[in-house]
Structures are given as C-alpha cells and as structure tokens.
Amino acid sequence: MTVRMGFVIITSRCIDCDACMVACRSENDVPLGHTRNWVKSSGVQGQFPRVSEMFQPGNCMHCDNPPCVSVCPTGASQKRSDGIVIVEDKKCIGCKYCLTACPYDARFSNSETGKADKCTLCLHRLEQGLEPACVQTCLGKSRQAGDLNDPSSVVSRLIAQYPTRILLKEVGTGPNIYYIDEAVPDIPDGK
Amino acid sequence: MELTWGLMIVIYLFTAGLSAGAMITSNLAFLYGGQEFERVSRWGAYLSPFPISLGLGLLVLDLGSPFNFYQLFLTLELSSPMSYGSWIILFFTLLSFGYLYLWLPQAYQKVGQTLQLERWKKRLAMLMPFLSIAVASYTGLLLNAAVRPIWDAPLLPILFLISALSTGVAAVIMISNLSPWKRARHKELHVLTKADAGLIILECLIILIMIVMGRSSSASESMAFSSLLVGNYVWVFWLLIVGLGLIIPLFMELMELKGKIPVKWVWPVTISSSFLVLFGGFFVRYVITYAGQTNSWF
Questions:
Q1: Which among A68, A95, A111, A173 is the top mutation candidate for probing chain B, defined by the most B β-carbons within 10 Å of its own β-carbon?
Q2: Which of A51, A97, B130, B176 has its CA 20 to 30 A from that of B18?
Q3: Which residues belong to any copy of the 4Fe-4S ferredoxin-type domain (chain A) (predicted)?
Q4: Cβ–Cβ < 8 Å for A115, A87
Q5: What is the three-class DSSP state of B286?
Q6: Average pLDDT, chain B
Q7: What are the pLDDT digits (tens) for A33-90?
C-alpha cells in the first residue's frame, strides 16, 4: 500500500507549552511574525469550580484533496506520493492564492522569500530517519506522526484504539491530522 | 484569517471587469449599430486597454515574488482558474491594444491598408466579446475555487459578469459624454442607458438570490452573509453598493429614459449616474474580496 503521512494529535496530552512552535521555528528557520504550527485554546469552559480548558495543536493537515494544490497556478504547490504537501520555491510566484484556499490557515507568506510557506512534515528529517521536530520535542507526547496506511505505525495504532475526529470534515479536504480528545495513558509502540 | 488579498486585488478585479465591459459595449455597438453607434464604439475601443493594464501592473506588484511572474506562462494548470485566467487576460490585453489601433483615425494608422484594417476590425469585434466574457467572469470562478464562505457562491461569476458589463457601459457613457471630440449622440446614449438600467436591475436580482441562497446554507455561510447585511460591512453594502451604486443611479437612468429630466440637467445627471455605477461596481468587488477573507468556516 502507498505511504500516507499524517499526524495524530492527542489534545488531552497537550499542556500548551508551545515547545512544538519553538522547535519548528528553530528547525526550519521560520521568520518571526508567522508560524508553521500552532496551539489553539478553547478558552476556559464551564463554571467555577468545574472549569476546563482544551488545547488543540495544529499545522498543515497534508490533506487528501488539498485545495492549495489544485488552485496553484504554476504547479509550485504539490502533493507528493507519500502524501506530504510541499511548495517548490522555484516555481512559487507568491500570488497567495493557496493562502486564501486553505480552510485551516496553515500557510503564510514568508516575508523573507516572498513565497508561500508551510509545514513540510520535516521532510529533511524524515529522510534522515528522524521524527519531525515538533513531534520529537513534544514533552507530553501529544504529537505523533507517521504513515497512516501502515497498520503497525504509532499513528495507526492510536487511531485503531481511540475515537478520533478531523477538522472541518464538511469542507471535503480530507485532512490527515486525526485528533484524539480522550485520555491516552500509554503511547503504543510502533514505527 | 488575516487579509491576504487587499486593495490591489480589489482594484484589479474592478479594472479588469471595466475593460471587459467597455470592450463588449464597443464590439456590440459596432457590429449591431454600425455608423449610428460609431462614437460609442470608438470610445469603448479607446478606453478598454487601459484600466486592465493598470490592474495587471498591480497584480504583478502584489506578488511576493514579482520577478517570478513568468512562471505563470510556462504552464497551464486546468484546475487553477488563476492559471487559465492569466492566459485569458494576457490575450485580452494584447488584443485590446490591437483593437484600439484599428479604431485610430486613419492618419495614425501607419501600418496596414485601410480596407484590410476594416476587415480585421470586424473580425476582432466578433472575437472579443467571448474573451471579454471570460475576463469578466473567470474572477468569479477564481474566488469560487478557494472555497470560502461567500466566495463559494455559485452565482459569483455571473454577478461579476453583470457588474462588469454595467460598469463598462457606464464608463463608455461617461467618457463619450465628457469628450468634446466624437461626443455620443442622443440615440446612442439612450440605448446604452437602457442597457445599463437593465443590467442594474439584473444585478440587484442576482445579489438578492445570492443572499437568500447564502442565508439558507450552512451556519458559516449564513454568518458570512450576515456580515454584509447587519455586520462589519453593513455600511459598505447598504449605503455604498445598494444605495449609491444601484438604486440611485437606476432611478436617475429611468428618469432620463422617460425624458423627465430638464434639458439643462441631462448632462450632469448622465455623468453622475454613470459615475455612481462605477463607484458601486468598485465596492461590489471590495465587499466580496474582503468579506470572503474575514469570514471562514467554523
């Protein structure tokens, strides 16, 4: 079966330390003012003393039907055969069409290069057999990445074991970040 | 999301529509009106290349990597309206300058024989309406493809087309009225004003249907349309577009058509009604471009 790279993010394990954002910025030289990944907060929910707050990390969803790729006028935005959505800088003219087309606001215009910028799933690290920077640094092990089509991967095992949700399902982009909100006491072994 | 496409894109959308509308006005006046409509055909041809040229300049300046713009013309991506749109506006703009040349007074036509040029004028006049419709409406498809609330309204290409025609006709009315040379005759203006009034009525209907469709759609969509009706864009929508851009010029045009305007007032009324149509057309592009970005799915 073909490789389909994606993430599982366990919101119950996220403490909003933002280390993933720092690691990504440092790993990928992301200019200040924009970020390739984020942690969103639900705000305080409920009434005192029963209050809660949920943190939802995110980044490019490496969608099955990425609108950023189909609208790109020069073919700079591409979906690789392993599912990773990338921008080929040489072809990008900075028209920002992909920024408007992404319903997750996962892209931004890089002020230094003038080109569309986004999460590459740390392609350069994967090629060296390393995890993406945000995954490696995540101290709560909230972020997991891997091949969603490989049943022995951590991400597949988590998806098999826990109920998941995806964001903006109705828009039809087929995002490849699966969110788990339940408590996950142990992260399964796997690739 | 923050604003990705700003005023430069709004101006491009407006100027491209204006040029396409002026071009069709000129083509149809020439093909169906002949000598009697010679002045408006001429002014349409003289006007058409310039607004879109300004718009194209702004488009390139808006790019993050402007010197890389040629990448657009190394490929044709059929899934991207911006890709085929770039080719369309390129051909339109080049041919619109050719068409302008064919309308120049003979003394300025240094290249080509008069008889041959006349033949080419007719050929171009038959081809350009198709290109103009493409220029005016592809921008609607372009926003459609980004699948955001408001931008994904299926009637958007039609709204942009009708608004483009309306602003194009209005611009021709205005310029052929302001010029001391080759000023439009009463009959020409009457037909153009009639056409513009019809287009404004059509535009009102399309806007109404878009709002009804949007409001009865998903919550995100409905919320986005609320931002026009009662939210952030309430003044732009009701005052600048509906009031000043549609209802008032429509009323003025209808009064003109019925001959209810005293003779000494006809000229200022004609100029102001066509100005208001242009004004409204600009804010239609503004509100769609901005409201589409400040609203998103939830």
A1: A95
A2: A97
A3: 5-35, 51-82, 83-112
A4: yes
A5: helix
A6: 94
A7: 999 999 999 999 999 999 999 999 999 999 999 999 999 999 999 999 999 999 999 9
Name A40's bridge partners.
A56
What is the CATH T-level fold of the domain A5-180, as seen in this structure?
Answer: Alpha-Beta Plaits (3.30.70)
Tokens matching residue A4: 């389909």
Q: Does A112 touch chain B (CB under 8 A)?
A: no
Domains identified in chain B and CATH numbers: 7-294 (1.20.1630.10)
Q: What chain B residue is nearest to A98 in terms of C-alpha separation?
A: B146
Nearest CA in chain A to B86: A73
Of B1, B66, B146, the CB nearest to A97: B146
Residues constituting chain B: 298
Mean pLDDT of B113-136: 94
Contact criterion met (CB < 8 Å) for B65 and A96: no
SS3 B239: helix
Task: For residue A50, list its beta bridge partners.
Answer: A47
Condensed to tens digits (0 to 9), the pLDDT of residues B101-112 reads 999 998 888 888
Q: Are A65 and A173 in contact (CB under 8 A)?
A: yes
User: pLDDT digits over B158-211, tens only?
Assistant: 999 999 999 999 999 999 999 888 888 888 889 999 999 999 999 999 999 999
Kindly state whether B58 is in contact with chain A, defined as any CB-CB distance less than 8 angstroms.
no
Q: Flag if A101 and B64 touch (Cβ within 8 Å).
A: no
Domains of chain A: which residue ranges? 5-180
Q: What is the chain B residue with the closest CA to A173?
A: B147
Say what the pLDDT of residue B111 is. Answer: 84
